[in-house]
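ok new one. same drill as before - structure tokens go in, u give me an amino acid for every spot. 550 of them this time. try not to just spam alanines like last time pls lmao
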């Protein structure tokens, strides 16, 4: 099988002659030039990853002393408040059930933590994350005091990603939990009931690239891991006190509020000390965000130059062969300008987006001339812009989708705003039917039905991030189908691939992929419910929101 990036062994694109032969000579030359632009882009991107990794490592060292102080206060190690005696009983020290309530306050995690999980999570004393020497890998570590549920003192889950943008999962490796024979949690989990501790038992990543069910399970695991890494660990005290929860919702849960009111005066003082540490941490984090934004901006300018050149070639603004030398066909006119239906093919060739695009949608997508993304001014989110040529479907020349996130780490979606599409009479594609253009409807958190909207929001954000992180930077490879020919998303090494496998792959794609019942049986019933909930919870875009995004 061919690699996802062409099979030249260095993660840079290579031409597949059999695919280029089907194009007319002039179009073939334009595509060859797009491939060269892609190579230059990927080399620049690799350098950016190195620079960003060095910046992250610099600040992680600055955060660590603050995390150490927090750990000591939470667990009552060598620290006291003014009113406490150094001889205070050890059992009275620290902050009880700190991590349990910090995790429960985040609504995505709250629905993963079942009642039968909470007893074990009360013994959680610390959570850490670390980046390995490979920038494509990060690990979460959960530290537990001795408890009646399992023998492990540390549970880990390690995420291996395809690239440093951390969007496509290669594999996830968890700890095998050594449950004690008498623990209650294991008994409660009989019958395929879900548990927070499923985080440490992810399904194996098989080489079935079309298996969206398996991918959804892995993405759900990664979503939980990234939220814990980017939101829970750095802002743990704010989740424990409910302050972070109140940034999203008008009120915290009654159980959480009742727990906080029962804290003793000494514990409240310890929490105040954690707040002071949090302020120091947030000051460093703000400085990191500024430096990272400056680094991204410096590289984005170079990317945009390449995207502008790509736009000119794709849309026939300039003939690619004239950029290097005179055309070998002399004064003959090219068969047709640019690269026909470039963006339509790029989108449809992605297995996730393909499921969103109907046949009528495909006709409208032929008129896309470019897709770009921009960072929001406050750095808390991004904007997608789809540029269209004049077409028979709608009057808009630009359709936008704006994702507003709660922080610069881009893990918690606050709301998503779209464009009001001005359809021509009789040509509306979204009226009472599924359509890719429903993507431009808004998605926002409904405080009274927040759990029901989690999956809708997650899928919408997943689609937007896919377009930003995969389609836009590697559009020519998706157009050619080079980005979907192999199973690199599931960790298939190029040494295991051969050209003889190409025919076998095409035959295999005709059959429907399956996941073992053990991996997905507990997901089947909930997925059907989520789909119906998502259909019932669509919001309409107001004129004010639409104009704001324009």
């Amino acid at each position: 099988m061919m690699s996802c990036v062409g099979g030249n062994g260095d993660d840079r694109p290579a031409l597949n002659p059999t695919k280029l032969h089907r194009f007319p000579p002039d179009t073939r030359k334009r595509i060859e030039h797009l491939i060269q632009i892609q190579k230059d882009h990927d080399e620049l991107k690799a350098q950016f990853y190195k620079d960003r990794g060095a910046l992250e490592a610099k600040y992680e060292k600055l955060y660590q002393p603050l995390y150490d102080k927090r750990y000591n206060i939470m667990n009552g190690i060598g620290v006291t408040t003014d009113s406490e005696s150094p001889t205070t009983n050890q059992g009275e020290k620290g902050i009880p059930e700190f991590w349990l309530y910090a995790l429960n306050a985040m609504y995505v995690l709250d629905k993963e933590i079942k009642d039968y999980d909470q007893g074990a999570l009360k013994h959680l004393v610390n959570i850490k994350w670390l980046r390995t020497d490979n920038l494509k890998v990060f690990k979460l570590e959960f530290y537990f005091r001795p408890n009646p549920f399992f023998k492990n003192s540390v549970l880990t889950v390690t995420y291996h990603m395809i690239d440093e943008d951390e969007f496509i999962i290669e594999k996830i490796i968890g700890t095998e939990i050594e449950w004690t024979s008498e623990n209650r949690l294991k008994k409660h989990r009989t019958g395929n009931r879900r548990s927070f501790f499923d985080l440490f038992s992810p399904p194996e990543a098989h080489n079935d690239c079309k298996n969206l069910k398996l991918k959804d399970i892995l993405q759900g695991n990664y979503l939980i891991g990234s939220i814990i890494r980017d939101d829970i660990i750095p802002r743990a005290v704010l989740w424990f006190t409910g302050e972070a929860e109140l940034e999203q919702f008008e009120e915290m849960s009654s159980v959480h509020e009742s727990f906080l009111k029962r804290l003793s005066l000494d514990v409240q003082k310890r929490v105040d000390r954690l707040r002071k540490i949090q302020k120091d941490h947030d000051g460093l984090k703000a400085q990191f965000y500024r430096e990272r934004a400056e680094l991204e901006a410096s590289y984005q300018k170079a990317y945009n130059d390449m995207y502008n050149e790509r736009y000119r070639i794709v849309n026939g603004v300039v003939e690619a062969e004239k950029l290097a030398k005179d055309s070998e066909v002399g004064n003959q006119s090219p068969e047709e300008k640019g690269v026909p239906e470039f963006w339509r093919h790029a989108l449809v060739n992605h297995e996730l987006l393909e499921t969103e695009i109907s046949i009528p949608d495909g006709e409208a997508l032929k008129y896309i001339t470019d897709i770009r993304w921009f960072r929001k001014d406050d750095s808390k989110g991004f904007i997608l812009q789809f540029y269209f040529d004049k077409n028979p479907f709608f009057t808009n020349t630009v359709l936008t989708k704006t994702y507003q996130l709660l922080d610069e780490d881009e893990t918690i979606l606050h709301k998503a705003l779209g464009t009001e599409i001005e359809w021509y009479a009789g040509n509306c594609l979204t009226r009472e039917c599924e359509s890719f253009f429903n993507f431009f409807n808004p998605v926002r958190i409904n405080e009274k039905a927040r759990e029901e909207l989690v999956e809708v929001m997650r899928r919408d954000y997943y689609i937007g991030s896919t377009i930003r992180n995969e389609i836009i930077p590697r559009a020519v490879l998706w157009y050619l189908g080079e980005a979907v020919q192999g199973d690199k998303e599931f960790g298939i090494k190029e040494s295991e691939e051969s050209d003889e496998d190409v025919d076998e792959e095409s035959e295999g794609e005709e059959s429907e992929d399956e996941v073992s019942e053990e991996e997905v049986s507990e997901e089947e019933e909930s997925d059907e419910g989520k789909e119906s909930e998502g259909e019932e919870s669509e919001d309409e875009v107001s004129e004010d929101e639409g104009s704001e995004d324009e």
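Strands lie at 124-131, 137-144, 154-161, 169-174, 368-375, 381-388, 398-405, 413-418, 443-444. and btw Residues 1-15, 485-550 have pLDDT under 50 and may be disordered.
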